[in-house]
Design a protein that fits this description.
The complex is a heterodimer of chains A (482) and B (485). With 482 residues, chain A is of the alpha+beta class. Chain A has helices at residues 54-66, 167-184, 224-243, 289-297, 303-313, 318-325, 328-340, 344-360, 373-384, 390-402, 408-414, 423-436, 438-445, 451-462, 469-481, and strands at residues 5-15, 70-71, 74-75, 78-81, 91-94, 101-112, 115-130, 134-138, 143-147, 154-160, 196-205, 216-221, 251-256, 261-267, 277-278, 285-286. In chain A, strands 2-6-7-10-1-11-12-13-14 form a 9-stranded mixed beta sheet. Chain A has a 3-stranded antiparallel beta sheet with strand order 5-4-15, with no helix packed on it. The N and C termini of chain A lie far apart (75 Å). Chain B is of the alpha/beta class and 485 residues long. Chain B has a domain at 3-256: Amidase signature (AS) enzymes (Alpha-Beta Complex). Chain B is built from 16 helices and 11 strands. Chain B has helices at 8-16, 22-40, 48-63, 105-112, 155-162, 179-184, 219-229, 264-268, 273-288, 301-319, 338-349, 352-365, 371-394, 417-422, 428-432, 462-473; strands at residues 43-46, 74-78, 116-121, 168-173, 188-191, 211-216, 259-263, 292-296, 397-401, 437-444, 450-456. In chain B, a hairpin with a 5-residue loop joins strand 10 and strand 11. In chain B, helix 2 (22-40) runs antiparallel to helix 3 (48-63) and helix 10 packs across helix 13. Classes of the chains: A alpha+beta (482), B alpha/beta (485). Chains A and B meet through loops of A and helix 10 and helix 11 of B.
Chain lengths: 482, 485
């Protein structure tokens, strides 16, 4: 069952973060009471007409820029006709021949047989369309219920070329797309809420084959893990079938998360004929160079550029840089902190060791960081310039989390961490520690250097705000020798 | 004073001078409806009580001297225009019980002026047809001869105006649905430039062709009503930011120096001998009044009907797909799966003609057939537009018959749908090219049935065609409909 090359292409649906829906003014927020966020337009009442949300077009173009696409200045909407109760008009307004964005390129890094590999994935197109409603089937009562809140939420569909060769690569690609869309500010990419969904097209071929094999499409995968598992199962299934001399049927399949298997939904023979034609209710989109330039100028610095800046200008390690870049909020916070105190390495270390830990513990909300980067940077500056002891920095930070509006220097002062050197007191305290810990001192003098930490700790505790750690350490060493 | 014979402007003046009240005016029309509509069957729904309430509300405004041009004036509305709280059926079983929760933009505009709605007028089912005989409930009769069709699809609106059951009405025109019934019923009907009037709330037949427009007893009344419903609408993405001029500005100014083109194909294939002669003699009359006649040609006319039916049916097939009985409209009692339910609901809810168009449209859009049918029709659309542009290089307006023949008998029983389709040949190109056109009566045949002529204008130039039609109307004496007397 070896010797096949998987050929994988993805279709990723991403809901755009606009306030209102794509063709009416209803709220596009996630959730809400059943059918509370719909109007005559998005519930498809007779006589209603769609009016395009210009922000949705702008966001789709931003996604295009983020994924390295060319933008079609002249773009057309089409109707995709099919009957389904979650689609109240019985057609979806989408784009067929002239999508907003084409010809993108996204470099993806992933591990292949334990080796770090980079591969450029081509983006065929990104088009703008509307999401459908949600159906709930109640088999016990034999009814299906429709909720149209999601109906008309702007959606972009990102279609790749069949450039992906493995489950690992596909997963890395989707993660990268999610990161880029989050940076562009157009999608929150919450797969668990369905704001990012993925269809996988996959076929196998022999390495020497020049034509592609027959593909299967696996619909609606809603986690990175499911994408990987579905692809792995599908490679296994298709390879097994091919080994047995069977033909692969072109079909749509569903992934069963519990069983870890894909199952046939419908074959090509039963596929819909969508009878696309240009949507007569929406004028063609014509974008000027000025509009495109203004959208582009609104784009933030993207992750790949940040990585270069962090590693080359700031001399961060690639691992550290990536940890910070992985969350745009953190990366922005980092940059703002560095602007306040130009010591990227120290700030990066503190963010990674302290701040991220507090975020993971739920003490800080990523969506709502209450303290300012300036106030945050000041803690690190105080520690680096020995205004406070480094070991006290995290206590000041903890105080800052509780009182984010208070100046961090004041917090340090209130905690008694600001150092005002008094060497006489240092000597006094150290002498006390030495005489109170005879055993340890003897051990140290006999060459057991590791007890130094214990003695140092005793001194530091009693000398908070009296001297820097360095001063205490030097003095303690000196006095232990005598 | 016979209240039902006043023009809209005369009504305005009489109302403002308190010579009449809106209630009296409204009541006189409601009386006429009560008296004769059982025979004509032009209204699907008569809003007797609501109309009187609206009339009284309008009167308060009039008494306070806070009037708009249509305050207190009664009107009839085609039953495919959504009216909040009032049944809007499209003359279909499918929407027999549909009460829209919102108003069409034109209704918002009329309501803001406190115009009075007498009721909703019948039509061909979903505006597909030229006879009003495909209506589910009210198969309207021609007021000139109750044995004849009123034309369609806005047959109810045209017949109501013709039979003095409304001073003016709104219709909709996708391929001639305002002009042809206006012609058959001896009244004036105007199809505005595409995007002049918001389509929001007009239950779509063919979105790229549909336009709401006025039917009235004169060109000037048409202009007067059109002014009140025109303009950009943020709810209609295809409506345009165009200034709305006084459409009646050229009324009373004659046609001196007006260049009128007569495309020969319309008079060759497009009309019976009698219609041809009547329209040509009207042209001579205009010439005698100072207009200049220009000969011209539209070779693409022979493809116009197939192009029109492909485009309109394709759009209709998609527009009407939403009628599945799930959220509104007729729902079948039969069927245990979603597929069965919608199939049965649609089979029961739609009439034959509608089904025919849905099948035609879906066929034309099917994969493998798109280029041969829909694609070609779109190419023809471009061709027809260009031919119009060329004609307008040397002419101000174009004059054609409105229909190849006068109203046909209800019992003529034309079973070949193609024959009915071809009777739209004189009107469909105007929709295909998004142009404005007005139909007015220019004669009567041997049995007294009205003959209509159409004056087609340049994009956004309703003023000129209204002015030209007005000039002709002032020299022409209409014979009132006898079917109601």
């Amino acid at each position: 069952m070896a010797g096949y090359v998987p050929v994988i292409g993805l279709e990723i649906h991403a809901e755009l973060l606009t306030h209102s829906k794509v063709f009416c003014t209803c709220s596009a927020e996630f959730g809400g009471d059943t059918n509370s966020r719909c109007c005559p337009v998005c519930s498809g009442l007779p006589g209603t007409l769609p009016v395009i949300n210009e922000t949705a077009v702008e966001y789709a173009v931003k996604a295009g820029f983020a994924l390295g696409c060319d933008i079609n200045k002249f773009s057309v909407f089409d109707r995709k006709n099919y009957f389904y109760p979650d689609l109240p008009k019985a057609y979806q307004i989408s784009q067929l021949n002239l999508p907003l964005c084409i010809n993108g390129l996204v470099p993806v890094e992933y591990e292949k047989d334990g080796v770090k590999t980079t591969h450029d994935i081509r983006i065929n197109r990104i088009h703008l369309e509307e999401d459908a409603g949600k159906l709930t089937h109640n088999d016990l009562e034999g009814v299906s219920l429709a909720d149209y809140n999601r109906c008309g939420i702007p959606l972009i569909e990102i279609v790749t070329e069949p450039d992906i060769g493995s489950a690992e690569e596909a997963k890395a690609f989707v993660e990268k797309i999610a990161l880029l869309l989050k940076y562009a500010g157009v999608c929150d990419c919450k797969m668990e809420q369905g704001s990012l969904r993925c269809d996988v097209n996959i076929s196998l071929k022999k390495p020497t084959d020049t034509v592609l094999g027959t593909r299967a499409e696996i619909k609606n995968l809603n986690s990175i893990k499911a994408i990987g598992r579905a692809i792995e199962f599908e490679i296994y299934r298709q390879a097994k079938a091919l080994d047995m001399g069977q033909r692969i049927v072109q079909e749509t399949r569903r992934f069963d998360d519990n069983r870890g298997e894909t199952r046939s939904m419908r074959s090509k023979e039963n596929a819909n004929d969508y009878r696309y034609f240009p949507e007569p209710d929406i004028l063609q989109v014509n974008m000027t160079d000025e509009q495109l330039m203004s959208i582009r100028s609104d784009m933030p610095e993207m992750p790949d550029k940040r990585l270069i800046r962090y590693t080359e200008n700031f001399a961060l390690s690639e691992t550290d840089a990536k940890i910070i870049i992985n969350e745009k909020t953190i990366s922005d916070f980092f940059d703002d902190s560095v602007a306040a105190y130009n010591n990227p390495k120290a700030i990066a270390n503190f963010i990674i060791s302290e701040m991220l830990r507090r975020i993971n513990l739920g003490e800080i909300s990523l969506d709502d960081i209450k303290f300012s980067p300036v106030n945050f940077a000041k803690i690190i500056e105080m520690a680096e310039t020995e205004k406070i002891n480094k070991s006290n920095a995290k206590d000041v930070f903890r105080a800052l989390i509780d009182k984010p509006e208070i100046d961090s220097e004041k917090l340090a002062k209130d905690l008694g961490f600001i150092i005002e050197t008094d060497m006489a007191k240092v000597i006094d305290v150290i002498a006390g520690v030495i005489s109170a810990n005879e055993t340890a001192v003897t051990q140290y003098r006999n060459g057991e250097v590791k007890v130094f930490g214990f003695l140092m700790g005793q001194c530091s505790k009693a000398l908070k705000g009296v001297a820097t750690s360095k001063q205490i350490k030097e003095e303690l060493e000196k006095m232990l020798k005598n | 004073m016979n209240l039902t014979e006043l023009s809209l402007r005369q009504m305005r003046s009489a109302l403002d001078k308190k010579e009449i009240s809106s209630a009296e005016l409204t009541q006189s029309y409601l009386d006429n409806i009560k008296k004769t509509d059982a025979k004509i069957e032009s209204y699907v729904t008569v809003c007797e009580e609501a109309a009187m309430e609206q009339a009284n509300a309008a009167q308060e405004r009039i008494n306070a001297n806070e009037v708009s041009p249509l305050t207190g004036i009664p009107l009839a509305i085609k039953d495919n225009i959504c009216t909040e709280g009032v049944r809007t059926t499209c003359a279909s079983r499918m929407l027999e019980d549909f009460i829209p929760p919102y108003n069409a933009t034109v209704m918002e505009k009329l309501n803001n002026e406190n115009a009075v709605m007498l009721g909703k007028t019948s039509m061909d089912e979903f505006a597909m047809g030229s006879t009003t005989q495909t209506a589910y409930e009210k198969k309207t009769k021609n007021p000139y001869d109750l044995e004849k069709v009123p034309g369609g699809s806005s047959g109810g609106s045209a017949a109501a105006v013709s039979a003095m059951l409304a001073p003016a009405a709104l219709g909709s025109d996708t391929g001639g649905s305002i002009r042809q019934p206006s012609s058959f019923c001896g009244v004036t009907g105007l199809k505005p430039t595409y995007a002049r009037v918001s389509r929001y709330g007009l239950i779509a037949f063919a979105s790229s062709l549909d336009q709401i427009g006025p039917i009235a007893r004169s060109a000037e009344d048409c202009g007067y009503l059109l002014n009140r419903v025109s303009g950009f609408d943020p709810h209609d993405g295809t409506s345009m930011h165009m200034a709305v001029p006084d459409f009646t500005a050229k009324c009373g100014q004659g046609v001196k120096g007006l260049k009128i083109a007569l495309p020969k194909e319309f008079f060759e294939d497009g009309a019976t001998e009698f219609v041809r002669k009547t329209v040509l003699s009207a042209a001579e009359k205009l010439k005698a009044m100072g207009a200049e006649l220009v000969e011209c040609s539209m070779p693409a006319l022979k493809y116009a009907v197939p192009a029109y039916f492909l485009i309109s049916s394709a759009e209709a097939a998609s527009n009407l797909a939403r009628f599945d009985g799930i959220k509104y409209g007729h729902r079948s009692e039969k069927g245990s799966t979603y597929g069965e339910l919608i199939m049965n609901s649609r089979s029961e809810g739609f009439g034959r003609e509608v089904k025919r168009r849905i099948m035609l449209g879906n066929y034309a859009l099917s994969s493998g057939y798109y280029d041969a049918y829909y694609g070609k029709a779109c190419a023809l659309r471009q061709e027809i537009r260009e031919e119009y542009n060329k004609i307008f290089e040397t002419a101000d307006v174009i004059l054609t018959p409105t229909a190849p023949r006068t109203a046909f008998g209800i019992n003529e029983n034309i079973t070949d749908p193609k024959m009915i389709y071809y009777s739209d040949i004189c009107t469909v190109t105007v929709n295909i090219a998004s142009l404005p056109a007005i139909s007015t009566t220019c004669g009567y045949d041997e049995s007294g049935m009205p003959v209509g002529m159409s004056i087609i204008g340049k994009m956004w130039d309703e003023e000129t065609i209204i002015g030209a039609a007005d000039a002709f109307e002032k020299t022409f004496t209409r014979i009132p409909a006898k079917g109601v007397c």
